[in-house]
Fold each of these.
Amino acid sequence: MMRFYRSPDNLEIITSDEYVPPHPIPHSDDLNIIQIILGARSNLIGVWPEAYYRSTIDSFRILGRQIVFVNDPEHIRHVVVARHGNFERKSPQMRRALEALLGDGLFISDGETWKRRRPLVADIVHKRRLPEFGQTMEEAALAVAQEWAALPPGSEIELTEEMGRLTAAIISRAVFGKNIARDAAQQVIEGFSAYQRHADSFNLGYFLGADNGWPAFGGRRRRKAIAMVHDVVESVINAHLAGEGDAGSMVDLLIRRNEKAGGEPLDVTALRNEAATIFMAGHETTATTLTWAWYLLANASWAARSVRQEIDSVCGARAPALADLPQLRWCRAVIQETLRLYPPVPLLPRQALQADRIGPVDVEKSALVMIAPWLLHRSPDLWEKPNHFLPERFLSGARIDPFAYIPFAVGPRICPGMNFGLDEATLCLAILAQRFEVLPRDGYKAEPVCRLTLRPKGGLPARLVARQARNPL
Ligand code: HEM
């Protein structure tokens, strides 16, 4: 593999007042098809040439298949809003990679199923429900702070795991109920991560002409991972249906909201698919956001100082709470800038239902239409110093074009958990940053890699330095 394709080097620049965090140096030459395929399988964000970071729209082919690449706000609006009906379908790669686990869950459904389920799911994760879930967020972050405080001084932690544990605790209690047993939640988490290790987001069948791709091969380990998730989720659903669930959990809301909507009740499999989808969509996305935020703050001392000063002045010695978020503007800006630089979902692939036209490009039926937050967020045509870490850009009050900044996607399929995820990440950052500085292992350099989400390759080893919360008043 190495003979045909060499992954690009990463660039990272750290000075006392500027920080350009790690990103693959774009290829200067066009890659041939073999290189694109091998590159896409090793790291989807590393294969793009320089020109694709500009505001542009282009069309090319991989084997027999047309790929339409859309990287400017106006054409993105056309795809996801004006022609939503023709481009709402996820790519066969994504559908095939996730269908064994999520069935017809919202993330990969389309057409009538998506239309019917979207209002249900959007309602139960809506921002007006955040006060109910805020307490779970606070408790889970404080529990992690306590565990960290009990570690022997100088201990090393692995941040992607720690943040995964934290966001899984939050989303599992929110979805399944506060009384979900710890080992049941752990089984779901392990099942998901084992599944992800064996999921392949490249589907050769599609490029060879099968419009819906080939079913993904299901080995023994993948089947075991699926069973680990399904067993727990189904037993939680059955407990709720038998009246023994936690009132106020998302599963409970889903069942009640669906009954109120009338029509066909959702069966256990449909409820399982939606609950598993919310868990998956809300777990690793927030965990990787937090992981990257720690790495960015550790290398940008001025921003870390501003975050700490803000927390001290807003909260003094008490722990930050959901109600403090409107005043924790620096913490929020750090999360927003982290989502710009490292969007957890860096590619939004869609499939054209019918032939269509986007700007100057004729789109064939079943073509792959690729929108890439990774590239859009780093476009020199849209962002000043696009590769710099500058949380200040979200503090200035300047309007951010909603079609230029899309970590949660945009249009009718926008992430329904956007406010949940933003508040959760900001609150967890504030609670933990009040008590600890998180420092990557000496000499450690993060390398962003994308499989299903964008994460630091090999994890992020770090040590903790306890700090005393101060009340400046
Ligand atoms: C920082 C955290 C998060 C990020 C960056 C994020 C990002 C996204 C993105 C980009 C999509 C659209 C994917 C596509 O169109 O291909 C999406 C969809 C979705 N997200 Fe999130 N998400 C986050 C947190 C959450 C949370 C906390 C929840 C639930 C509580 C959630 C639930 C969902 C669901 C159910 C969908 C599917 C929506 C649909 O297809 O109609 N997400 N998310």
Amino acid sequence: MKYSIVGCGASGMTTAITAVRNGVRPSDITIYEASEKCGRKILATGNGRCNLGNEILDSEMFYSSSGGRKEFLDDLIKRINMDDIKDFFRSLGVITVSKNGYLYPRSMQALTVLNALKNECDDLGINIRTKCVCTEVTRSGSGFELLINGKKEYSDVVVLSCGLGSGGFGIKGSEFTALLKGLKIKHNKTVPALCGLDVYDDLRSIKGVRSAGSVSLFVSGRFSGTEEGEIQFTEKAVSGIPVFQLSSLAGRALEKGEKCCLTIDLMNEYDKDDVKEIIGSRIDRFPEREIYYAFNGIMNNKLMSYVLKRSGISDKSPAGSLDDGRKKALFENLKELKFDVKNIQPADKAQTMSGGIDLSAIGRNMDIYGNDGLYVTGEMIDVDGKCGGYNLYLAWATGIICGRSLAK
Ligand SMILES: Cc1cc2nc3c(=O)[nH]c(=O)nc-3n(C[C@H](O)[C@H](O)[C@H](O)COP(=O)(O)OP(=O)(O)OC[C@H]3O[C@@H](n4cnc5c(N)ncnc54)[C@H](O)[C@@H]3O)c2cc1C
């Protein structure tokens, strides 16, 4: 029996390790990896620290464009919870720690997670073939034919674990479609997620600024969600964790041609009356001061200048000269700074991809219906998690379930 795993990333290695630990002969497994090295994406995770899970595990932490999201995730979480993930890593020699519920290796180094997976594959004798790009999988008798670097290879069982190109690693959208073209599998268009959103406004003056606040997303005028945290600005994009968390919803909506708008509350810890009071008291206290200085110390100075400009107020005008219209504009921009979204940032700037193989095509063991012997794990599944260890959870959990199933 020959088992082929396409992709030697987080979920591919977890699948192989679990399969061998449960009885599959290591010599029967081959992992094909496109790049020179395995698991490169793991090294980039959690800013090099690898946020590998989260103690708060709930189906609501995940999105999907397929129907059946809640059922799929409730079942997955019931079978593989965070204790199982911790056990898996303990079995690899990795001690995990929780930082406010976010799970990391105690070393705080993604490298140690990658080393643990790779060493275990090597110790178990799993054959990893790097620089092997799989471009197509087709049915052949009771098994499959894989096109590896242009050459056909037969396999009885195939696991698709190639990710979907987030962070610039892995298969791109068109390659994903090409890979599956010989098989009848329902799949959905892949769109970047957990990334910044490009806006129409010129943000050069606040490039690099970070500010606490809350971000709300409106899709075609309807409120879609709100998130709090540190917001970051680049020349063209609004970014940071709160934007990342909303990006999956925005990406899908933009894909459907819907209009997306962000409103940012730059003083979210104050209610509206407090903000009006702050504006009024600054003007009363410093009527002669240039407005830029009268409002000094409220937030990042570049951001304050930007807000004043958006409110039609010159930095240099005396605070006491503000008319009611400008005061109202300033208040609105501090509490609801609006940005129309132009597009979602590209896959290489994203931490995951939404879309992929539709949940209706996937069985409880990560098997693909109507394709006996074909499985899928990790990012290729049409589920994307929020920031906070959820996407790696998905990779480990689906890998463990798939690996166990291969051994049955
Ligand atoms: C910058 C960044 C930071 C992140 N931080 C976190 C975090 O802290 N916590 C978290 O939970 N998630 C994080 N993620 C997401 C997480 O890394 C992914 O969800 C996870 O790695 C997906 O695992 P996977 O095995 O499905 O795919 P991958 O890890 O992408 O592995 C797929 C492998 O398949 C190979 N491959 C692709 N195509 C082919 C082909 N045609 N033939 C052969 N091999 C192929 C690729 O080279 C790759 O090695 C982050 C992602 C990025 C980009």
